[in-house]
Design goal:
Layout (H helix, E strand, L loop, with lengths): L39 E7 L2 H9 L4 E9 L8 H5 L6 E8 L6 H10 L8 E2 L2 E2 L5 E5 L2 H17 L9 E4 L4 E2 L7 H4 L4 H17 L9
Parallel strand pairs: 6-7
Antiparallel strand pairs: 1-3, 1-6, 2-3, 2-8, 4-5
């Protein structure tokens, strides 16, 4: 199984911040309408959700991804609250996938192969607990798959530093505001998207061409 050895380092000032004002917590929460049949869901946090969403959408067997918040205690958080780093939540994604085409094991490979799991509370130019690395599980089987994969990485010394990825049960996934969904696709000229998100996606595509959808 191919692993990423080289890591993603970004030394620019742009950060994962939208100029669009977030909704207030008193406003209705956006929830997608899904008509997918026979699909499963997986949840990961590995930095700015604009980047992570785009990466998973490029993978064969993934039908849709949604940006959101998970891993904390604050109920119904919004983007402004998340940005303080005090909600306990991380920017996360919900991955809707067809288990007949792509396995959870492969989604875990994509997770560790598309970010640096050794940087605590940081990913690229983004700092704060909301950008920490978390692999969520919804069953004991998923937890074991994540743990086994980390063991493989550690025993193979694929990273020069200790892996700090959290392994957490998914207690609640809160969907982010609608304007965050498909953000990279809908905002190709955003400076952060151009300088961070797109290069991160291109790096992943170059490393794992066999996992990509035909249109990619």
């Amino acid at each position: 199984m191919k692993m990423i050895i080289s890591l993603l380092f970004v030394s620019i000032v742009q950060t994962c911040i939208s100029n669009t004002p977030p909704i207030n917590s008193s406003e209705p929460v956006w929830i997608p309408i899904s008509k997918e049949q026979g699909m499963k869901k997986a949840y990961f946090a590995s930095g700015c959700f604009w980047c992570v969403e785009a990466i998973y959408e490029s993978v064969k067997g993934v039908s849709e991804t949604y940006s959101g918040y998970a891993g904390g205690l604050t109920k119904n958080p919004n983007y402004r609250q998340i940005g303080t780093g005090r909600t306990g939540h991380a920017e996360a994604v919900e991955v809707i996938y067809d288990p007949k085409i792509v396995s959870f094991e492969t989604l875990v490979l994509v997770f560790f192969g598309s970010h640096d799991p050794t940087t605590a509370n940081r990913q690229g130019p983004d700092y704060g607990s909301q950008y920490r690395s978390i692999a969520f599980y919804t069953s004991d089987q998923e937890r074991e798959i994540i743990q086994d994969y980390i063991q493989i990485l550690e025993e193979g010394r694929y990273f020069s530093k200790e892996i700090v990825t959290e392994i957490k049960p998914l207690e609640k996934f809160y969907y982010a505001e609608e304007y965050h969904q498909d953000y990279e696709k809908n905002n190709p000229n955003n400076p952060y998207v151009k300088q961070v998100s797109i290069p991160r996606l291109l790096k992943f595509k170059k490393q794992y061409p066999e996992l990509l959808k035909e249109e990619y």
